[in-house]
From TrEMBL:
Signal peptide: none
Function: Catalyzes the formation of 4-diphosphocytidyl-2-C-methyl-D-erythritol from CTP and 2-C-methyl-D-erythritol 4-phosphate (MEP).
Superkingdom assignment: Bacteria
Stated name of the protein: 2-C-methyl-D-erythritol 4-phosphate cytidylyltransferase
Species per Swiss-Prot/TrEMBL record: Muribacter muris
Length: 225
């Protein structure tokens, strides 16, 4: 049976680490906003029925937001945290659907990675991730406490792919218990699930700091899916 797949794009952050005059998702790269680049991957996918974008109430009057309105894009208001923005987006998604949650700040996602994730039919869900390639240190203040065994450590990326009803319940439980959720998988883990790790491309970067812009511009220029 074909699953009904909805994309959720949390795009309500302020981008404080970017130190830009406005939220980083509205910065332009190659003539488009970062948000538009991110949406392209989902708007052109035949198996994604709808895209829910969580935007902030203060940004709702941006001209770029007005241009977003289309038949398969629905806007909701984000929350104080990324997790709350995702939860608000889930409120307009039926429980039986599957949701692909992807950061607006990750515009370099390739269709090949999206398709890899969509092939997973694991009831515990799945996330794109890349294995740690640097030596990882645990800090004690400004000094090294110890070196971690990186053989089983992965960097979580997005999209993260879950049954909508399970994710809603997991996020709600995490909020109720005051558990800090920095990605959807951590809420699902808190609920006792063990989502699958799907190896993704390392160029699926999250634009976070000013130095990330030039790299994203390069990756977006590169051909290939
Ligand atoms: N309350 C929030 C916070 C973040 N996000 C979104 O979550 C994604 C990843 O978050 P991050 O990179 O941390 O973005 P910001 O929170 O905007 O950045 P910063 O932490 O530097 O302020 C971004 O697309 C951001 O817009 C969101 O929808 N709602
Ligand atoms: C969801 C995420 O991109 C996975 O690595 C990351 O947790 C977002 O963190 P941020 O501090 O909200 O950027």
């Amino acid at each position: 049976m074909m699953r009904e797949i909805i994309a959720i794009i949390p795009a309500s952050g302020v981008g404080s680490r970017m130190n830009a005059p406005f939220p980083k998702q509205y910065l332009m790269l190659h003539g488009k906003t970062i948000l538009e680049h991110t949406l392209d991957c989902f708007l052109t996918h035949p198996h994604i029925r709808k895209i829910v974008v969580a935007v902030s109430e203060t940004d709702q009057y941006y001209p770029q937001i007005a241009q977003l309105k289309s038949d398969n894009i629905q806007l909701v208001f984000g929350g104080e945290t990324r997790a709350e923005s995702v939860f608000n987006a889930l409120s307009v998604v039926d429980d039986h659907c599957w949701v692909l949650v992807h950061d607006a700040a990750r515009p370099c996602l390739k269709r090949s990675d999206l398709d890899k994730l969509l092939q997973i039919d694991d009831p515990q869900g799945a996330i794109l991730a890349t294995p740690a390639i640097d030596t990882i240190k645990r800090a004690n203040g400004t000094h090294i406490a110890r070196t971690e065994d990186r053989s089983a450590l992965w960097h979580a990326l997005t999209p993260q792919f879950f049954p909508a009803g399970k994710l809603k319940t997991a996020l709600n439980a995490a909020f109720q218990q005051g558990f800090t959720v920095t990605d959807e998988a951590s809420a699902m883990e808190y609920a006792g699930f063990h989502p699958q790790l799907v190896a993704g491309r390392s160029d699926n970067i999250k634009i976070t700091r000013p130095e990330d812009l030039a790299l994203a511009e390069f990756y977006l220029m590169k051909e290939g899916t």
